[in-house]
Specification:
Number of strands: 10
Distance between the termini: 34 Å
Strand content: 15-25%
Shape: elongated
Largest sheet: 4 strands, antiparallel
Strand order of the largest sheet: 1-10-7-8
């Protein structure tokens, strides 16, 4: 059977006193987002040597190569500087026409990659995401699963895999204040 764990009356009372007269993140309209699910991390995530190769072949490739963090890179109040990049081939991008060297790389993978379920309009595109632009904003990020609070403030355009969550701090709250409370 399943165990039920109900909070003690004292804990419920404390929780109600804390919430009384105060806004929650939900009241501020804060949306929590999960990082990106590529459907093929082994293809869409590249390391420094491949990144450098793409930039040498065509400097314009930098426009769709974005730094990416995995959940394990996120610590309490900080994160390890990304050493991996995401090929951010959004639906509005015609990879074959606009980024031929990246297209050739993607085209070198098997039919199972090209026929994967999680794809966008074309097999070279990531599936649609309504919050891609939020990765450019100041955000608080945390690891999906952890035995401790590991929240960090990220002010750079960095993307996250789906092993991390993030939120855009409400304008009414100082992001560092919110970060302190979360940690």
């Amino acid at each position: 059977g399943q165990n039920w764990n109900l909070p003690s009356p004292l804990k419920l009372s404390i929780g109600k006193r804390i919430q009384a007269g105060h806004k929650t993140l939900e009241d501020f309209g804060t949306q929590i987002n999960l990082g990106i699910a590529t459907g093929a991390n082994d293809v869409f995530l590249i390391e420094k040597d491949k990144y450098d190769e793409f930039i040498i072949e065509d400097p314009k490739n930098d426009l769709i190569l974005k730094p990416i963090l995995r959940g394990r890179d996120i610590q309490r109040y900080s994160y390890k500087h990304p050493d991996s990049w995401l090929i951010l081939s959004r639906n509005e991008i015609n990879v074959e026409k606009e980024y031929p060297t990246i297209f050739n790389y993607l085209n070198s993978f098997s039919e199972s990659f090209k026929n994967r379920g999680a794809q966008g309009k074309h097999w070279t595109n990531l599936r649609a995401c309504s919050f891609f632009d939020d990765f450019k904003k100041e955000k608080i990020v945390w690891i999906e699963l952890s035995d401790e609070n590991r929240f960090a403030l990220c002010q750079d355009e960095i993307y996250f895999l789906n092993t991390a969550y993030f939120l855009i701090p409400p304008k009414e709250l100082d992001p560092k204040y919110l970060l302190g409370i979360l940690n």
